[in-house]
Amino acid sequence: MCLSIYGKLLRVDGDVGTVEIGGVERKVGLQLVPGAAQGDFVLVHAGFAIQVVDAEEAKSTMALLSEIFEAEETN
To answer: How far is CA 74 from CA 50, 61, 66, 69, 70, in A?
Structure first.
C-alpha cells in the first residue's frame, strides 16, 4: 500500500523544500513540482512532493485525518 500526505511548503532551496506535516518539518525533493512556491500545499510521497494541491482541499483533508487519529486515541 502506498501512502501520500499533504504538507505546507515552508521554504524552497533550489530543488529541495521544507514542508510542515502535522507540526513536524521535513525536507522533500521538489524535482517533480518545479513550479511549487513557499506557502503552497503539496502532496508528499516517499520523500518527494509529487503534486501541488488546492489549499482548501488540503486543509479539509488534514482536519478530517486529525479527527480520525484523535478518535483512535480515545478508543
So the answer is: 33, 20, 13, 9, 7
